[in-house]
Amino acid sequence: MKQHITKATGCKQLTTGKKDSFEGSRSSFSVLLFTVFVLFLSSVLFTSCEDVIDVKLSDENLNLIGVEAEINTQDQPYVFLYKTLKVDQDITYPGISGATVVLSDNASPANQITLAENSAKPGFYTIPAGKQYQGVIGREYTLTIQTDGVTLQAKDKLSSVSPIDSLVVEPSLRGDKRFLGVFIYSQEPKGIGNYYKWDVYVNDKLLADAQDLSVAWDKFVDGNYITKLEIFTDYYDTTKPEDRKINLNDVVQVKQTSTSEFAYNYYYQLINQSQTGGLFSVPPANIKSNFTSSDGKPVLGLFVARDISTSKKVKVTQEIEDQLKK
Asked: Can you name the CATH fold of 65-157?
């Protein structure tokens, strides 16, 4: 598991260069021509940097439907149904109201429930008051959504996850500097095909940015005991201490969750997308969803079924904080 943990951390790209050498004497005329050529090339390059490129954005993928949905063994399921926006619109995704949202499993007979929309949150659907519908290990769940004459559907299987034995928060060395790292101990069960996602909470608030994602699979550690696996590092620009996510007296907790192979690959692509911008970055693109639509249009988002193991809480004491200065 440790060898294949995928974390969204910043990376530095190294390049090697070759230094030009000129052997022998050159005439002053040759040197003059070379100097003129370099000045000409430089002027062309600097002029080209000032060119304004008018990027035409396509409206092809506007008004697509997006879905964020989950069922697990600890909390009640939820569905957020929304419309996509233009890339230059910096507003909250508009929720889609009035949809029929049905969740069912593959038990015999099937257990089925219709979710109700939250009147205070358009597009947000949860279990009706007085009802219970938690996930059961080993069952496959189907989410069916009907809205504006279109039917969306996705399936995911809920697999079990092993418990977290212990959680440790302590300094982690990066070069010559120390940052707080979050480590877990856990038994990886026998049988290849287990996929994991870790959710890190600080003061009961989930670290939900793409760069905070941590996922793994068990191909090369099947059945081993996992010792001190670092699932999160609070790496930040040391000139900006306000960017720290874990500070003195904060309380840290981790949820170790199972996830399907499809969901693992989805999160993996999310991590890659979060690192776009460099020379060797993955080109930005919509990530394939496990939803299908009756109108044939692509759907954004993911429906995931997860088992959850929650660690004990760990407080960042002065003793832990002092170790960062050593």
From this structure: Immunoglobulin-like (2.60.40)
